[in-house]
Amino acid sequence: MNDDTQREMACQELVEVITDYLEGTLPEFDRTRFEAHLASCPSCQEYVEQMRALVRLSGKLSAKSLEPATVDSLLSSFRRWRDSQTEL
């Protein structure tokens, strides 16, 4: 294997392929890299859990049906995740 196939997945790459991962269409090699990164990155773990929740709830909620505290919590989590990306 060359260096490109062995490299660790970065947070930004995880964000770019999360839909494929959640849909089960991410190639096995990339899925393995995704899961390895996820195991060592609390920010990405939180992001993936939020995306899973959004997928589960899609079609069941509208922006107006969310409690203000829930909206604030989601925005705070996203901001923490976004800020952690700029520190890399």
Quick synopsis:
This protein has 88 residues and is mainly α.
Explain what you see.
- The longest helix has 19 residues, at 68-86.
- The chain has helices spanning 3-6, 11-23, 28-40, 42-57, 68-86.
- It is an all-alpha fold.
- Helix 2 (11-23) packs parallel to helix 4 (42-57) and helix 4 packs antiparallel against helix 5 (68-86).
- It is flat, with a radius of gyration of 15 Å.
Instruction: Please tell me the overall pLDDT.
Output: 79
Low-confidence stretches: 1-5
N-to-C span = 26 Å
β-strand number: 0
Name the overall outline: flat
Helix/sheet category? mainly alpha
Tell me the fraction of residues in β-strands, as a range. Answer: under 5%
The radius of gyration computed from the alpha-carbon positions, rounded to a whole number of angstroms, is 15 Å
Helix content: over 70%
Main sheet properties: none
Q: Can you count the helices? A: 5
Helix-strand sequence:
HHHHH
Itemize the secondary structure elements and their pairings.
Blueprint: H1 3-6, H2 11-23, H3 28-40, H4 42-57, H5 68-86
Features:
single chain, 88 residues, mainly alpha, 5 helices, 0% strand, flat, disordered N terminus
